[in-house]
Amino acid sequence: MKIQKQPPSIFNDVIGPVMRGPSSSHCAGSLRIGRMIRNLMNGRIGDVLAEYDPNGSLVTTHESQGSDMGLCGGLLGYDTSDERLLNYRDEIQKAGIAVRVEYVSYGATHPNTYRITAVGGKITHRVTALSVGGGMIELVEIDGAVVNMRGDRWETVVFLSEAAGNPVRDISSLVQAGEVTLKKGHTPFVLISTTSPLSASVLDKIENLPPVTRVAVIDPVLPIISHPEVKLPFTNSGEMIRFNRNRGLPLWKLAAAYESARGQISETAAVEKMLEIVRICDAAIQTGLKGTKFADRILPAQSPRFEKKMTAGRLIADPVLNRIILYVSALMETKSAMGVIVAAPTAGACGALPGAIIGAGQALRRTEEEMARAMLAAGLIGVFIAGQSTFAAESAGCQAECGSASGMAAAGLVQLHGGDFRQALGAASLALQNSFGMTCDPIANRVEAPCLGKNIMAAANALACANMALADYDPLIPLDEVLAAFDKVGRSLPRELRCTALGGLSVTKTSKRINRRLLRRKRA
């Protein structure tokens, strides 16, 4: 049975993970890489060397945007929302793991490339992995052998003393279902990819085969498992329009049908998972509204002051937009204080989508389930973005993050207000058209500003485009064509404007001065 790479999942690729940290591609992505390396090492790790290529983004961002924290948390076996991540330096030291970072030119072609060498006792492995945006990752090489591990199934690695005989045949005879391949790296190994864990008895039998020296089981790090031969109802908006021609389903129903097929879960389970996400986001909003503090932060908490002035009638009156601004701000401040948030679609853009849906939902007195349906509708737009472009600012600037979130939120708001399928697609198209060319130039190298303003702008754009679509404005360009142009424009941005802290606001005198001040505070 051949297990193919699957199309995006709403809960893997688009809305999630539940996490702490300023950046999903840096914090959650590196943590997932670290957890997979921990499993590869059977939990025995003493020394780790992380090598970052100066051609990528990690040389300038690995410390300030949370890659170090995430990687150490993963090596310790933590989850992406673990509270101990805040003290990762002490925790990694207590565990006896020495982590060293070096900058080495090795021809990395992806901006978020991790080359990790882990040593534990007599075991040494070198892994090359990519963080591809929104917390999604790929392990692309183990000990010189090409692999394709995305954390969406169980990967059992069977190390051999030699590749003599036919180890694939011998191991396949013990494995009922899965993909079994021989990899000839520095040390040969057989890789078994399965959609459920191998039983203890099967693992024992594999370990007792003559050429086998060690077995490592790498557990999934994603919530939705990729199954073989999945039959999806559609993979882009054009196919979805044709699928829905005689069905007349609302966008949230189509989203639930897609995710049900993609993850082999029930439509009810998809709605329940999104309900849980809405509640987590709402809890993060409430945390932000109480006021947050964090030492390594540029701005003080501003959402409590906004709420006070809004309640006192000292702001320009707009009950829906002002509540959205308030909630986006609270979410971003919870993120910047290392609280628990949902990357939707990324941590850097975690405020726009849930802030818009929950803010408008509460202002309009919608139920939690109606908000969850709106988030599902938004998630399906995100599936099309993930399939045809990227959520990684390192690859396509902030349009990939806040721009994507705006398009998703616009469709979700139409769904929330009872608009039809056609209007939801039109809103997404309009909002994405308005987001082309957004730079990613973080002040003081933190994912805080201008990220806060861009999240608010993305949510406001979503609200405007939702109303335009509800008034039947013509978006002119179909969503699939917008996404093709969106991707081309984003990847055309100069490297300096794609989350490398090498251009735009990042290199202003004030930005550099703030960064120096924060570094002095951290070292004091």
Question: What is the topological layout?
Answer:
Elements: H1 10-14, E1 18-19, H2 24-40, E2 47-52, H3 58-61, H4 67-75, H5 88-94, E3 98-103, E4 113-120, E5 123-133, E6 136-142, E7 145-149, E8 154-160, H6 167-172, E9 179-184, E10 188-194, H7 200-207, E11 212-218, H8 237-243, H9 251-263, H10 267-289, H11 303-311, H12 319-336, E12 341-342, H13 352-363, H14 368-388, H15 393-396, H16 402-416, H17 421-433, H18 451-470, H19 479-492, H20 509-523
Parallel strand pairs: 2-3
Antiparallel strand pairs: 1-12, 2-4, 4-5, 5-6, 6-7, 8-10, 8-11, 9-10
Overview of the structural elements:
- The protein is an alpha+beta fold.
- It has helices at 10-14, 24-40, 58-61, 67-75, 88-94, 167-172, 200-207, 237-243, 251-263, 267-289, 303-311, 319-336, 352-363, 368-388, 393-396, 402-416, 421-433, 451-470, 479-492, 509-523; strands at residues 18-19, 47-52, 98-103, 113-120, 123-133, 136-142, 145-149, 154-160, 179-184, 188-194, 212-218, 341-342.
- Strands 3-2-4-5-6-7 form a six-stranded mixed sheet.
- Strand 9 (179-184) and strand 10 (188-194) form a beta hairpin.
- Helix 10 packs across helix 14 (368-388).
- The termini are far apart.
- The model has no long low-confidence stretch (mean pLDDT 95).
Which key terms come to mind for this protein?
6-stranded mixed β-sheet, alpha+beta, globular, 4-stranded antiparallel β-sheet, 20 helices
Helix/strand class: alpha+beta
Alpha-carbon Rg, integer: 23 Å
What global shape is seen? Answer: globular
Distance between the termini: 57 Å
Instruction: State which percent range the strand residues make up.
Output: 5-15%
Average pLDDT, all residues: 95
Largest sheet: 6 strands, mixed
Quaternary organization: single chain
**Tally of individual helices:** 20
What strand order characterises the main sheet? 3-2-4-5-6-7
Report the uncertain regions: none
Number-wise, the strands total: 12
Helix content: 40-55%
